[in-house]
């Protein structure tokens, strides 16, 4: 599957909570853990999302929030991936930050240059990637 989304996590659906309008989909991604997505009920049915199905969670880098020094903080974002900054690429306005995950995966985020400086983002700095369940696009291979 080719997409413009920088973050693509392939895994297996482990849980579906059906709702009247939206469904909550939990996808277990090897080396990452459980990711949660919110999709419309119709999309879940059309994609065949049920426990055991293969699926891909897609997250645009611009939808990822980077947190540094978050000990004890609580967030409403359902998806938290803890790791360490492995790359920082400054642009004219924004900075691309890549957070390496303990099991070898990575998450890319786009933050403003000002935020990158304020957070002290540099290679080797511990950081977390957060994204809301509603920011996850779920795909399946046809």
Question: What does this 3D model show about the protein?
Answer:
With 142 residues, the chain is mainly beta. The chain is built from two helices and ten strands. It has helices spanning 41-47, 113-118; strands spanning 7-17, 22-29, 33-40, 54-59, 65-67, 79-90, 94-100, 106-112, 126-131, 137-139.
Highlighted features:
142 residues; mainly beta; OB fold (Dihydrolipoamide Acetyltransferase, E2P); 2 domains; five-stranded antiparallel β-sheet; 2 helices; 10 strands; 50% strand
Strand order in the largest sheet: 3-2-1-4-10
Structural class: mainly beta
Taking the alpha carbons of the first and last residues, their distance comes to 10 Å
Q: Into which percent range does the helicity of residues fall?
A: under 10%
Give helix and strand order, one letter per element, not per position. EEEHEEEEEHEE
Question: In this structure, how is the largest beta sheet organized?
Answer: 5 strands, antiparallel
Quick overview:
The chain is mainly beta and 142 residues long. It is 9% helix and 50% strand.
Write the layout of secondary structure elements.
Elements: E1 7-17, E2 22-29, E3 33-40, H1 41-47, E4 54-59, E5 65-67, E6 79-90, E7 94-100, E8 106-112, H2 113-118, E9 126-131, E10 137-139
Antiparallel strand pairs: 1-2, 1-4, 2-3, 4-10, 5-9, 6-7, 6-9, 7-8
């Amino acid at each position: 599957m080719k997409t413009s989304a920088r973050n693509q996590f392939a895994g297996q659906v482990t849980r579906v909570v059906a709702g009247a309008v939206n469904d909550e989909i939990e996808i277990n991604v090897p080396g990452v853990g459980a990711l949660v997505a919110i999709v419309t009920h119709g999309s879940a049915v059309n994609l065949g999302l049920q426990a055991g199905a293969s699926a891909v969670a897609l997250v645009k880098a611009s939808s990822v929030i980077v947190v540094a020094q978050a000990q004890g903080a609580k967030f409403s974002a359902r998806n938290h991936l803890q790791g360490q900054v492995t790359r920082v690429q400054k642009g004219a306005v924004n900075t691309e930050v890549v957070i390496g995950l303990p099991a070898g995966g990575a998450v890319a985020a786009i933050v403003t240059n000002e935020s990158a400086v304020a957070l002290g983002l540099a290679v080797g700095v511990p950081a977390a990637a957060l994204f809301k369940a509603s920011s996850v696009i779920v795909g399946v291979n046809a």
